[in-house]
Amino acid sequence: MQLVDIGANLTHESFAHDFADVLARAAAQGVTRMLVTGASREGSELALALAQRHPGVLWATAGVHPHHAIDYDEATDVRLRELARLPQVRAVGETGLDYHRNYSPREVQLQVFERQLAIAAELGKPLFLHQRDAHADFLALLRRYRDRVPAAVVHCFTDTREALRDYLALDCHIGITGWICDERRGTHLREFVREIPPGRLLIETDAPYLLPRTVRPPPSHRRNEPMYLRHICEEIARDRGEPVEATAAHSTDAAVAFFGLGRQA
Ligand SMILES: [Zn+2]
């Protein structure tokens, strides 16, 4: 079984001390390829550096998360354009809207999201998107750019069935994380994850965040790692009523096509 973790925050400091072991444990579970999320200007540089050091295993995204929208300046815009042209960088993002925490003001989030939509449109790059408690504004803005970008994934989807249908109607991919394993806030996803057609479902850990609560035994450190993608895949397969091999195969094929992983970096 070969799996692609489309969202791993491997630049996080918690991975610094045992990075090689993290990759080895992932590979032992079939998680042989990962997209390292870039969520800030500095984080995008670090994600690129990791991808350059691990060709064929790691690729990067380059973007500024809505939490950090307030830090987005002209120099950031220029640098993101440069990063997005590099062969190791396979998507623009993480970008989007987060009205759950509002770490950056909404007006700033909207501006910065649109600037990154414009970069993806200009360069013809896929989008790696974040949306929390902002579905209406997010959908309206994305809709205006959707025809000009080759592909878009709404990563760590946690919203309603109606929101899911809106994104599928806009020909988006859907990223599902171990959130689905959370009995307190993820059970609604179990009811409709089967509505995502094969070819549109992508799977991810969002490590080191969102350790699946159904992993047994729970690791003492509480850090999520790409190796747990296999567990997430098993849970999703059960909810979809399909063999885990099928979920693994179509989500991997979809990830390879979405990020162009067949092409060398
Ligand atoms: Zn996110």
Describe the structure concisely for a colleague.
The protein is α/β, with parallel strands linked by helices and 265 residues long. The chain is 40% helix and 16% strand.
Overview of this structure, please?
This protein is an alpha/beta fold. 40% of the residues lie in helices and 16% in strands. It is built from 9 helices and 8 strands. The protein has helices at 19-28, 41-53, 74-85, 106-123, 135-145, 161-169, 187-192, 229-240, 244-259; strands at residues 3-8, 31-36, 58-62, 89-98, 127-132, 152-154, 173-176, 201-203. The protein has an 8-stranded parallel beta sheet. Strand 3, helix 3 and strand 4 (89-98) form a beta-alpha-beta unit. Helix 3 (74-85) packs parallel to helix 4 (106-123). The radius of gyration is 17 Å and the shape is globular. The relative contact order is 0.16. Zinc ion binds at residues 94, 130, 155-156.
Topology:
Layout: E1 3-8, H1 19-28, E2 31-36, H2 41-53, E3 58-62, H3 74-85, E4 89-98, H4 106-123, E5 127-132, H5 135-145, E6 152-154, H6 161-169, E7 173-176, H7 187-192, E8 201-203, H8 229-240, H9 244-259
Parallel strand pairs: 1-2, 2-3, 3-4, 4-5, 5-6, 6-7, 7-8
Zinc ion is lined by residues 94, 130, 155-156.
Mean of residue pLDDT values: 96
Low-confidence stretches: none
Order of helices and strands: EHEHEHEHEHEHEHEHH
User: What is the number of beta strands?
Assistant: 8
Task: Spell out which ligands are present.
Answer: zinc ion
- The helical percent reads 40-55%
Q: Strand order, biggest sheet?
A: 1-2-3-4-5-6-7-8
- Tell me the β content: 15-25%
Q: Work out the radius of gyration.
A: 17 Å
Determine the structural class based on helices, strands and strand pairing. Answer: alpha/beta
Characterize the biggest β-sheet: 8 strands, parallel
Rough shape? globular
Ends distance = 23 Å
The helix tally amounts to: 9
